[in-house]
Amino acid sequence: MATSERIVERRRVFQQYKEDVKERGKPFYPFAMLHDTIMSLVVVAVITGLAIVWKYSTPGDHHTVEPGWLGKLYDEPADPGTINFVPRPDWYFYFLFYLLRIFKWPPTVVIGTVGLPTVLLLILIAIPFIDIRAERRLSRRPVAIVASILVVISMGVLTYKGAVAKEALGTELVAKVPTWAKKEGFAGNQQAIAGAKLFAVAGCLNCHTYLGEGGTNLGAPDLTAEGAKNKGIAFQIKHLQNPASVNPGSPMPSFAGLGDARLKSLATFLEASKGPK
Ligand code: HEC
Protein backbone atom coordinates (compact mmCIF):
# COMPACT_ATOMS: atom_id res chain seq x y z
CA MET A 1 0.00 0.00 0.00
CA ALA A 2 1.32 3.44 -0.93
CA THR A 3 1.65 6.01 1.83
CA SER A 4 -1.22 8.23 0.55
CA GLU A 5 -3.56 5.23 0.50
CA ARG A 6 -2.53 4.36 4.00
CA ILE A 7 -3.33 7.86 5.19
CA VAL A 8 -6.75 7.73 3.54
CA GLU A 9 -7.36 4.38 5.24
CA ARG A 10 -6.26 5.79 8.55
CA ARG A 11 -8.56 8.79 8.28
CA ARG A 12 -11.45 6.47 7.48
CA VAL A 13 -10.73 4.35 10.54
CA PHE A 14 -10.42 7.44 12.75
CA GLN A 15 -13.77 8.75 11.42
CA GLN A 16 -15.33 5.38 12.21
CA TYR A 17 -13.84 5.51 15.70
CA LYS A 18 -15.34 8.93 16.40
CA GLU A 19 -18.76 7.76 15.28
CA ASP A 20 -18.49 4.67 17.47
CA VAL A 21 -17.63 6.82 20.46
CA LYS A 22 -20.64 9.03 19.87
CA GLU A 23 -22.95 6.02 19.58
CA ARG A 24 -21.65 3.69 22.26
CA GLY A 25 -19.05 5.63 24.27
CA LYS A 26 -19.31 6.42 27.96
CA PRO A 27 -18.25 9.82 29.37
CA PHE A 28 -15.02 10.05 31.40
CA TYR A 29 -16.98 11.35 34.41
CA PRO A 30 -18.20 9.36 36.23
CA PHE A 31 -17.35 6.03 34.53
CA ALA A 32 -13.57 6.15 34.05
CA MET A 33 -13.06 8.20 37.18
CA LEU A 34 -14.95 5.75 39.38
CA HIS A 35 -12.99 2.91 37.85
CA ASP A 36 -9.62 4.64 38.49
CA THR A 37 -10.57 5.67 42.02
CA ILE A 38 -11.58 2.14 43.03
CA MET A 39 -8.42 0.62 41.53
CA SER A 40 -6.18 3.20 43.26
CA LEU A 41 -7.84 2.51 46.61
CA VAL A 42 -7.36 -1.23 46.13
CA VAL A 43 -3.63 -0.71 45.40
CA VAL A 44 -3.18 1.54 48.46
CA ALA A 45 -5.07 -0.96 50.64
CA VAL A 46 -2.89 -3.86 49.46
CA ILE A 47 0.35 -1.91 50.13
CA THR A 48 -0.90 -0.80 53.57
CA GLY A 49 -1.93 -4.36 54.39
CA LEU A 50 1.46 -5.74 53.38
CA ALA A 51 3.22 -3.09 55.50
CA ILE A 52 1.12 -4.04 58.54
CA VAL A 53 1.75 -7.76 58.06
CA TRP A 54 5.47 -7.11 57.53
CA LYS A 55 5.76 -5.08 60.74
CA TYR A 56 3.55 -7.14 63.08
CA SER A 57 4.62 -10.59 61.92
CA THR A 58 8.19 -9.82 62.99
CA PRO A 59 9.04 -11.74 66.17
CA GLY A 60 10.42 -10.05 69.27
CA ASP A 61 10.49 -6.32 69.94
CA HIS A 62 10.63 -5.31 66.26
CA HIS A 63 14.29 -4.41 66.55
CA THR A 64 15.68 -7.85 65.86
CA VAL A 65 16.99 -9.03 62.55
CA GLU A 66 14.75 -12.14 62.74
CA PRO A 67 12.60 -12.28 59.64
CA GLY A 68 8.80 -12.12 59.86
CA TRP A 69 6.48 -13.51 57.21
CA LEU A 70 7.54 -10.92 54.66
CA GLY A 71 11.23 -10.64 55.50
CA LYS A 72 13.20 -8.86 58.19
CA LEU A 73 12.63 -5.29 59.35
CA TYR A 74 16.28 -4.36 59.79
CA ASP A 75 19.53 -5.53 58.29
CA GLU A 76 22.71 -6.00 60.28
CA PRO A 77 24.52 -2.68 60.74
CA ALA A 78 26.63 -1.93 57.68
CA ASP A 79 30.31 -2.88 58.02
CA PRO A 80 32.44 -0.12 56.46
CA GLY A 81 35.43 -2.45 56.58
CA THR A 82 33.90 -5.21 54.54
CA ILE A 83 36.23 -6.46 51.87
CA ASN A 84 33.91 -8.84 50.08
CA PHE A 85 30.95 -6.60 49.33
CA VAL A 86 29.94 -7.03 45.73
CA PRO A 87 27.94 -4.09 44.40
CA ARG A 88 25.03 -5.43 42.38
CA PRO A 89 21.91 -3.75 41.03
CA ASP A 90 18.37 -4.89 41.74
CA TRP A 91 17.32 -7.82 39.58
CA TYR A 92 15.33 -5.74 37.10
CA PHE A 93 18.51 -3.93 36.08
CA TYR A 94 20.50 -7.13 35.54
CA PHE A 95 20.09 -6.85 31.77
CA LEU A 96 21.69 -3.37 31.74
CA PHE A 97 24.28 -4.55 34.25
CA TYR A 98 25.21 -7.39 31.92
CA LEU A 99 25.43 -5.03 28.95
CA LEU A 100 28.16 -3.24 30.91
CA ARG A 101 30.13 -6.47 31.04
CA ILE A 102 29.77 -7.07 27.31
CA PHE A 103 30.75 -3.52 26.40
CA LYS A 104 34.13 -2.74 27.87
CA TRP A 105 35.35 0.59 29.10
CA PRO A 106 36.35 2.84 27.43
CA PRO A 107 35.98 2.12 23.70
CA THR A 108 32.51 0.59 23.44
CA VAL A 109 30.77 1.35 26.72
CA VAL A 110 29.11 4.57 25.50
CA ILE A 111 27.72 2.77 22.46
CA GLY A 112 26.44 -0.07 24.63
CA THR A 113 24.86 1.90 27.46
CA VAL A 114 23.75 5.16 25.83
CA GLY A 115 23.85 4.59 22.07
CA LEU A 116 22.03 1.28 21.79
CA PRO A 117 19.19 2.01 24.28
CA THR A 118 18.69 5.45 22.69
CA VAL A 119 18.39 3.99 19.19
CA LEU A 120 15.90 1.38 20.43
CA LEU A 121 13.87 4.06 22.21
CA LEU A 122 13.80 6.28 19.13
CA ILE A 123 12.55 3.32 17.09
CA LEU A 124 9.83 2.77 19.70
CA ILE A 125 8.79 6.43 19.51
CA ALA A 126 8.80 6.30 15.69
CA ILE A 127 6.65 3.18 15.39
CA PRO A 128 3.26 4.98 15.44
CA PHE A 129 4.47 7.12 12.54
CA ILE A 130 5.86 4.22 10.55
CA ASP A 131 3.26 1.57 11.23
CA ILE A 132 0.09 3.53 10.41
CA ARG A 133 -2.05 0.58 9.30
CA ALA A 134 -5.27 -0.02 11.13
CA GLU A 135 -4.50 -3.74 11.32
CA ARG A 136 -4.46 -4.99 14.89
CA ARG A 137 -4.60 -8.77 14.48
CA LEU A 138 -1.34 -10.23 15.73
CA SER A 139 -1.22 -12.83 12.93
CA ARG A 140 -1.01 -10.01 10.37
CA ARG A 141 1.79 -8.15 12.13
CA PRO A 142 4.77 -10.50 11.76
CA VAL A 143 7.45 -7.80 12.06
CA ALA A 144 6.04 -6.45 15.32
CA ILE A 145 5.58 -9.96 16.72
CA VAL A 146 9.08 -11.12 15.84
CA ALA A 147 10.57 -7.88 17.20
CA SER A 148 8.74 -8.19 20.52
CA ILE A 149 9.68 -11.84 20.91
CA LEU A 150 13.32 -10.98 20.22
CA VAL A 151 13.23 -8.16 22.79
CA VAL A 152 11.71 -10.43 25.44
CA ILE A 153 14.19 -13.22 24.72
CA SER A 154 17.25 -10.95 24.72
CA MET A 155 16.20 -9.21 27.93
CA GLY A 156 15.51 -12.59 29.50
CA VAL A 157 18.89 -13.94 28.50
CA LEU A 158 20.70 -10.79 29.67
CA THR A 159 18.82 -10.85 32.98
CA TYR A 160 19.75 -14.50 33.50
CA LYS A 161 23.40 -13.88 32.57
CA GLY A 162 23.46 -10.87 34.90
CA ALA A 163 21.99 -12.94 37.73
CA VAL A 164 24.58 -15.71 37.51
CA ALA A 165 27.55 -13.45 36.65
CA LYS A 166 30.50 -13.85 39.00
CA GLU A 167 32.31 -10.78 40.25
CA ALA A 168 36.05 -10.48 39.91
CA LEU A 169 36.39 -8.05 42.80
CA GLY A 170 40.09 -7.34 43.24
CA THR A 171 40.83 -10.98 42.37
CA GLU A 172 43.44 -9.96 39.82
CA LEU A 173 45.37 -8.13 42.52
CA VAL A 174 44.79 -10.83 45.15
CA ALA A 175 46.31 -13.31 42.69
CA LYS A 176 49.52 -11.27 42.91
CA VAL A 177 49.87 -11.82 46.68
CA PRO A 178 52.01 -15.02 46.47
CA THR A 179 54.37 -13.24 44.07
CA TRP A 180 54.58 -10.24 46.40
CA ALA A 181 55.23 -12.54 49.38
CA LYS A 182 58.06 -14.28 47.55
CA LYS A 183 59.69 -11.07 46.30
CA GLU A 184 59.43 -9.29 49.63
CA GLY A 185 60.31 -12.40 51.61
CA PHE A 186 57.21 -12.63 53.87
CA ALA A 187 55.91 -15.92 52.42
CA GLY A 188 56.17 -17.58 55.86
CA ASN A 189 54.22 -14.85 57.66
CA GLN A 190 50.50 -15.73 57.56
CA GLN A 191 49.39 -12.45 59.08
CA ALA A 192 51.37 -10.44 56.53
CA ILE A 193 49.78 -12.52 53.75
CA ALA A 194 46.31 -11.84 55.15
CA GLY A 195 47.23 -8.15 55.27
CA ALA A 196 48.47 -8.27 51.68
CA LYS A 197 45.15 -9.73 50.51
CA LEU A 198 43.31 -6.98 52.34
CA PHE A 199 45.66 -4.42 50.82
CA ALA A 200 44.80 -5.81 47.36
CA VAL A 201 41.02 -5.41 47.78
CA ALA A 202 40.64 -2.43 50.15
CA GLY A 203 41.38 0.23 47.54
CA CYS A 204 44.88 1.13 48.78
CA LEU A 205 46.23 0.59 45.26
CA ASN A 206 43.97 3.34 43.91
CA CYS A 207 46.44 5.80 45.44
CA HIS A 208 49.56 3.80 46.20
CA THR A 209 51.86 1.71 44.07
CA TYR A 210 53.34 -1.57 45.24
CA LEU A 211 55.85 -3.59 43.21
CA GLY A 212 54.66 -1.84 40.06
CA GLU A 213 50.92 -2.40 40.70
CA GLY A 214 48.40 0.34 41.38
CA GLY A 215 48.34 4.03 40.58
CA THR A 216 49.73 7.19 42.11
CA ASN A 217 47.09 9.60 43.44
CA LEU A 218 47.16 12.58 45.79
CA GLY A 219 50.93 12.19 45.97
CA ALA A 220 50.66 8.89 47.88
CA PRO A 221 54.10 7.26 48.24
CA ASP A 222 55.14 3.93 46.79
CA LEU A 223 54.81 1.29 49.53
CA THR A 224 57.11 -1.39 48.10
CA ALA A 225 59.69 -0.66 50.80
CA GLU A 226 57.45 0.93 53.48
CA GLY A 227 58.74 -1.57 56.04
CA ALA A 228 62.34 -0.43 55.46
CA LYS A 229 61.43 2.83 57.22
CA ASN A 230 60.94 0.74 60.38
CA LYS A 231 58.12 2.91 61.68
CA GLY A 232 56.65 -0.01 63.58
CA ILE A 233 53.30 -1.78 63.78
CA ALA A 234 51.88 0.71 66.28
CA PHE A 235 52.63 3.67 64.01
CA GLN A 236 51.11 1.89 60.99
CA ILE A 237 47.88 1.09 62.86
CA LYS A 238 47.60 4.64 64.13
CA HIS A 239 48.25 6.00 60.66
CA LEU A 240 45.61 3.73 59.12
CA GLN A 241 43.09 4.70 61.79
CA ASN A 242 43.67 8.41 61.37
CA PRO A 243 46.39 9.34 58.87
CA ALA A 244 46.33 13.06 59.72
CA SER A 245 47.01 12.38 63.41
CA VAL A 246 50.52 11.11 62.70
CA ASN A 247 51.22 12.78 59.33
CA PRO A 248 49.56 16.21 59.70
CA GLY A 249 47.59 17.35 56.65
CA SER A 250 47.45 13.84 55.20
CA PRO A 251 44.68 13.52 52.60
CA MET A 252 44.59 9.72 53.04
CA PRO A 253 41.18 8.57 54.29
CA SER A 254 40.76 6.81 57.63
CA PHE A 255 40.53 3.01 57.53
CA ALA A 256 39.50 2.68 61.19
CA GLY A 257 36.31 0.95 59.97
CA LEU A 258 38.33 -2.13 59.06
CA GLY A 259 38.52 -3.02 62.74
CA ASP A 260 41.52 -3.78 64.93
CA ALA A 261 42.25 -7.30 63.73
CA ARG A 262 42.35 -6.36 60.09
CA LEU A 263 44.40 -3.21 60.77
CA LYS A 264 46.92 -5.36 62.61
CA SER A 265 47.25 -7.63 59.56
CA LEU A 266 47.65 -4.63 57.24
CA ALA A 267 50.28 -3.12 59.53
CA THR A 268 52.14 -6.44 59.68
CA PHE A 269 52.13 -6.61 55.91
CA LEU A 270 53.39 -3.01 55.60
CA GLU A 271 56.19 -3.60 58.09
CA ALA A 272 57.12 -6.88 56.37
CA SER A 273 57.48 -5.04 53.06
CA LYS A 274 61.13 -4.13 53.20
CA GLY A 275 61.56 -3.95 49.43
CA PRO A 276 62.28 -6.72 46.88
CA LYS A 277 65.09 -9.07 47.89
C1 HEC B 1 42.83 8.38 48.62
C2 HEC B 1 44.21 7.97 48.49
C3 HEC B 1 44.79 6.97 49.46
C4 HEC B 1 44.29 5.74 49.78
C5 HEC B 1 43.01 5.07 49.26
C6 HEC B 1 45.23 5.15 50.67
N1 HEC B 1 46.26 6.01 50.90
FE1 HEC B 1 47.87 5.64 52.06
N2 HEC B 1 48.57 7.52 51.69
C7 HEC B 1 47.95 8.45 50.90
C8 HEC B 1 48.71 9.68 50.93
C9 HEC B 1 48.35 10.94 50.17
C10 HEC B 1 49.80 9.47 51.79
C11 HEC B 1 50.88 10.48 52.19
C12 HEC B 1 50.42 11.22 53.44
C13 HEC B 1 50.55 10.35 54.65
O1 HEC B 1 51.63 9.81 54.91
O2 HEC B 1 49.55 10.16 55.36
C14 HEC B 1 49.69 8.10 52.25
C15 HEC B 1 50.60 7.45 53.08
C16 HEC B 1 50.55 6.13 53.40
C17 HEC B 1 51.59 5.44 54.13
C18 HEC B 1 52.90 6.03 54.59
C19 HEC B 1 52.85 6.42 56.03
C20 HEC B 1 54.24 6.80 56.50
O3 HEC B 1 54.36 7.89 57.10
O4 HEC B 1 55.17 6.04 56.29
C21 HEC B 1 51.18 4.15 54.30
C22 HEC B 1 51.91 3.03 55.01
C23 HEC B 1 49.89 4.03 53.67
N3 HEC B 1 49.54 5.26 53.15
C24 HEC B 1 49.14 2.87 53.62
C25 HEC B 1 47.90 2.76 53.03
C26 HEC B 1 47.10 1.58 53.07
C27 HEC B 1 47.48 0.26 53.72
C28 HEC B 1 45.94 1.87 52.41
C29 HEC B 1 44.73 0.97 52.24
C30 HEC B 1 44.16 0.42 53.43
C31 HEC B 1 46.05 3.24 51.95
N4 HEC B 1 47.23 3.75 52.34
C32 HEC B 1 45.07 3.87 51.21
C33 HEC B 1 46.81 8.27 50.14
C34 HEC B 1 46.02 7.14 50.18
Quick recap of the structure?
By secondary structure, this protein is mainly α.
Q: Any overview of this molecule?
A:
By secondary structure, this protein is mostly helical. The protein has 3 domains: about 25-75; about 85-165, Orthogonal Bundle (Helix Hairpins); about 170-270, Cytochrome Bc1 Complex, Chain D, domain 2 (Orthogonal Bundle). About 55% of the residues lie in helices and about 0% in strands. A two-stranded antiparallel ribbon has the order 1-2. A hairpin with a 2-residue loop joins strand 1 (about 210) and strand 2. Helix 3 (about 95-100) packs across helix 5 (about 140-165) and helix 7 (about 175-185) crosses helix 8 (about 190-200). It is elongated and about 95 Å long. The termini are far apart. The chain binds heme C. Heme C (HEC) binds near residues 208, 253 and 255.
Features of the shown structure:
single chain; 277 residues; mainly alpha; Helix Hairpins; Cytochrome Bc1 Complex, Chain D, domain 2; 3 domains; two-stranded antiparallel ribbon; 56% helix; binds heme C
Q: Any idea of the CATH topology of the largest domain?
A: Cytochrome Bc1 Complex, Chain D, domain 2
> Which structural class do the helices and strands define?
mainly alpha
Taking the sheet with the most strands, its summary is:
2 strands, antiparallel
Beta strand %: under 5%
Q: List ligands, each type once.
A: heme C
| CA-based shape | elongated
The spatial strand order of the largest sheet comes to 1-2
Identify the CATH homologous superfamily of the largest domain. Answer: Cytochrome c-like domain
- Which percent bin holds the helix content? 55-70%
Instruction: Compute the number of strand runs.
Output: 2
Unreliable spans are none
Mean pLDDT: 87
The SSE order reads: HHHHHHHHEEHHH
